[in-house]
Design a protein that fits this description.
Number of strands: 6
Strand content: 25-35%
Order of helices and strands: EEEHEHEE
Organism: Kribbella koreensis
Radius of gyration: 14 Å
Family: Belongs to the RutC family.
Structural class: alpha+beta
Distance between the termini: 9 Å
Number of helices: 2
Protein name: RidA family protein
Length: 130
């Protein structure tokens, strides 16, 4: 399957650092709920380790996308919720193993006071067009 997505960085807008400002395309809309670093049994992976949590989060996102008949090539937007923006470099390493870094999805990163459990450091939701 070849993605028909268009990635744009509009003139007059500062270049994105590792993300596209605009991603569009024809197809079916897929929304993936925020994923955290739980394994298949619901146990937290990587307590206190943002990199390990990010790896599990992206593995979970991949499984969710696959269930919807999608891949990371279809992702148009990622939203990151982190308890500390210092985790972003570790998250980017995990993300870059899954996305096409030449055509990255649009994304937003937000530091939050807390997520639903104090040991969960990262939550990521995805939107795709298949």
């Amino acid at each position: 399957m070849v993605s028909e997505l268009t990635h744009l960085n509009p003139e007059g807008v500062a270049p994105g650092n590792g993300y596209s400002h605009v991603v569009s395309g024809p197809g079916r809309w897929v929304a993936i709920s925020g994923q955290v670093a739980f394994d298949a049994e619901g146990k937290l992976v990587g307590e206190g380790d943002a990199g390990a949590q990010a790896q599990q989060v992206f593995a979970n996102l991949e499984r969710c996308l696959k269930a919807a008949g999608a891949t990371f090539a279809d992702v148009v937007k990622l939203n990151f919720f982190v308890t500390d923006v210092a985790y972003l470099p570790a998250i980017r390493v995990a993300r870059d193993a899954y996305v096409d870094t030449a055509k990255p999805p649009a994304s937003t990163a937000v530091q939050v006071v807390a997520l639903f459990r104090p040991d969960v450091l990262i939550e990521v939701e995805a939107y795709a067009v298949v």
